[in-house]
Design a protein that fits this description.
22 strands; 16 helices; Nucleotidyltransferase, domain 5; single chain; alpha/beta; five-stranded mixed sheet; seven-stranded mixed sheet
Length: 488
């Protein structure tokens, strides 16, 4: 039996999982870390705490399963979250600014007005938005004295979380093409940093990591990894795309986690969206051409259930939301738009805020719970609808993964709103499996479509709603979205 491992560094927790060569989980350890919320627009993580949770998970696994038995390890990570550290000491210079952080809106407004670099941004496949790394880098440069001092000393590193972990593990300042494609600084065609952007915005190229293929040998760590090589790095949604075996053009998946992320593989072609989606790198194997994807991103999905639990205290545990929602026959004409930090794809309205509409004396907490779940399905529908318009492909089915897939009510409603089959896999840790299997495939010199051997279809939900009812729900959702927009 052969084994491979995956470091899965997410938005709320870090995990290390060991799989066998059939894709079965042998052992996993998980540790949550602190969500730092200085104000209503800021979300931060402590880089040292993230590192400690990763090391702890590796150590806990090693206590029960000797890591030296592994052939390879992959790293997958929350994307866009950005931090700065000193190259000489590895000392973080500020908390990491998380992808959900919107404090940089003024910087984005400023960038959008700079005519001399507008054309350069089109090369990235991304809109100018707080979501991506660039405005976070500029904020750190402008607001943190230690960052400026490190820059003046030519001792500054900027990076996303993959770069931070790779630096700590291998002492190299590197990233992979999928994470680099989320910075608003990489040319999708050449897979290099855009010099004109760096020069205009006074960002030192030396402070940015070297961009490498997703599947390549990144090195190892004797003490922590027992010399097992890191042979794949993928941003979490690209890891999920790979893990769903979406290796052919036209394959599509949707992940239901903190947010929702739908990606469709567009092969060797970069498809630029006319419908509010992002063009991004799907993956690249060393020595081969990159594969691309179209992506739709929703910032609040599972996080809305956490909001019901932690802010409104309507439920005690997240899993209770399904039974509460099922205690009423429908949403009672209540709609919830979770635009807590604006709307991402396909609207890109940073001024939007969350709204709960359609309330009457009849409404109760069960209707609100149902509206929260249904908001996830409506937002995902908008992503798939935009993809079909951009690609000209009518998808027959959607592969799904993430924590919310366990919610049967949501998945059935999703199939009804999509009007498509929804397929889940037997293993729910698709993101970790994707990057772990990618590392094993590279290490073993196997073809990429070997990924299909690691997954087994678990459950299918078929659409079961008449078109009139579906159209009614979607028209009311459109009305609710219009109420959320341009709030601030």
């Amino acid at each position: 039996m052969k084994y491979f491992g995956a470091i899965d560094q997410g938005t709320t927790s870090s995990r290390f999982i060991v799989f066998d060569d059939k894709g079965k989980i042998i052992i996993q350890k998980q540790q949550e870390f602190t969500q730092i919320l200085p104000n209503e627009v800021s979300v931060e993580h402590d880089p040292n705490e993230i590192w400690e949770t990763v090391v702890n998970c590796l150590s806990l696994v090693d206590n029960e399963f000797d890591l030296s038995q592994l052939d390879s390890i992959g790293i997958t990570n929350q994307r866009e979250t950005t931090l700065a550290w000193r190259k000489s000491t590895g000392e973080p210079l500020h908390n990491a600014l998380v992808w959900q952080d919107t404090r940089t809106q003024d910087i984005c407004d400023e960038l959008s007005q700079m005519e001399e670099i507008k054309e350069e941004f089109t090369k990235t496949g991304l809109p100018v938005a707080t979501y991506f790394s660039l405005s976070k880098i500029l904020w750190l440069l402008r607001n943190v004295n230690e960052v400026q001092e490190a820059k003046n000393d030519n001792d500054l590193c900027f990076g996303t979380i993959d770069s931070w972990l790779l630096y700590k593990l291998t002492d190299q300042h590197v990233t992979d093409v999928t994470n680099a494609s989320r910075t608003l600084l990489m040319d999708l065609t050449t897979l290099t940093w855009i010099d004109n952007l760096l020069e205009t915005l006074d960002i030192s190229k030396e402070s940015l990591p070297i961009i490498k293929p997703s599947l390549t040998n990144y090195g190892t760590n004797e003490k922590i990894l027992k010399n097992v090589p890191i042979t794949a790095v993928l941003g979490d949604q690209q890891a999920s795309l790979f893990g769903q075996n979406c290796v052919n053009s036209g394959d599509v998946k949707n992940t239901y986690g903190t947010g929702c992320f739908a990606l469709t593989n567009t092969g060797a072609e970069i498809v630029y969206s006319n419908n509010g989606l992002l063009s991004t790198v799907a993956y690249q194997k060393e020595g081969e051409e990159p594969q691309y994807a179209l992506e739709g991103s929703v910032s609040i999905a599972g996080a809305a259930v956490q909001w019901l639990r932690d802010n409104l205290n309507i439920i005690n545990e997240s899993k209770e939301v399904e039974s509460l929602a099922m205690s009423v026959k429908d949403n009672g004409d209540v709609y919830f738009v979770p635009a807590f930090s604006g709307l991402f794809s396909p609207h890109w309205d940073e001024t939007a805020r969350g709204v709960l509409v359609g309330l009457s004396r009849f409404s109760n907490k069960s209707h609100i719970a149902r509206a929260v779940l249904e908001s996830v399905a409506y937002q995902s529908y908008e992503l798939l609808d935009s993809m079909e318009k951009d690609t000209g492909i009518k998808f027959e089915s959607v592969s799904v993964d993430g924590g919310m897939v366990e919610n049967n009510l949501l998945m059935q409603f999703q199939a009804d709103i999509f009007n498509k089959k929804v397929n889940s896999q037997q293993i729910n840790e698709i993101t970790a499996l994707g990057v772990g299997a990618a590392s094993y495939i590279y290490f073993s010199n196997l073809p990429l479509d070997t990924m299909g051997e690691f997954i087994t279809n678990s459950q299918t939900w078929n659409p079961n709603m008449d078109s009139k009812q579906r159209d009614h729900y979607l028209s009311k959702w459109d009305k609710a979205i219009s109420k959320a927009k341009q709030w601030t």
